[in-house]
């Protein structure tokens, strides 16, 4: 386990206690499982398509609003980089949070929510293919998951609650089906990138990272076990 991830878990426990959430997400991250996102039944073409999508960029110059920003801030809250009430605009306070995170994690300090930050957040939350958020988990990350599913996939979840309930599981399943991911209702590393890059959001830096909808492959597409490339 990396020092970054160990520190993130410690930060998360303290953060969730302060925020009033029960820190159960760690149980999902370390639970023995073949994989999240049912990768055995996700065609390689879909994995490659999703991984090839560009991450959206947000900054003071490109401030949104976008649910992507709220999603990222919610995941950062779970890592101890606190925004009390995450919103959808890239403000100076958001910039300060991104700068702090990038500095702590040894990333280039460019004051922008872009690929290196998205990837680091993903790898800290999902250190392996089995790591996921799933039924019964609680935390800020679940709030972010609900918010992005509501905005991009038409779910009607209570995004004021950090509980990953049956409705959340069903909404994740619907999003996975839309993205062409093997449906299991567990939100893992592939679902993370899939929902962030699912569609272009107003305010994203169109010159760098417009996101495209991932089309499901043909029914006869070859299904093989994925080989995750860690960044």
Question: Can you describe what's shown?
Answer:
Helices cover 47% and strands 0% of the residues. With 231 residues, the chain is mostly helical.
**Number of helical elements:** 10
Helical coverage, percent range: 40-55%
- Spans where pLDDT lies below 50 across 5 or more residues: 1-33, 200-231
User: Could you tell me how far the N terminus lies from the C terminus, measured between alpha carbons in angstroms?
Assistant: 15 Å
Which descriptor suits the 3D outline? Answer: globular
Give the overall pLDDT as a whole number: 79
Estimated structural class: mainly alpha
Q: How many runs of DSSP E, i.e. beta strands?
A: 0
Q: Quick one: biggest sheet?
A: none
Distinctive features:
231 residues; mainly alpha; disordered N terminus
Task: Summarize the topology.
Blueprint: H1 3-19, H2 25-30, H3 44-52, H4 67-78, H5 92-104, H6 115-125, H7 140-153, H8 166-179, H9 189-196, H10 206-209
Helix pairs in contact: 4-7, 7-8
Short description:
This protein is mainly alpha-helical. 47% of the residues lie in helices and 0% in strands.
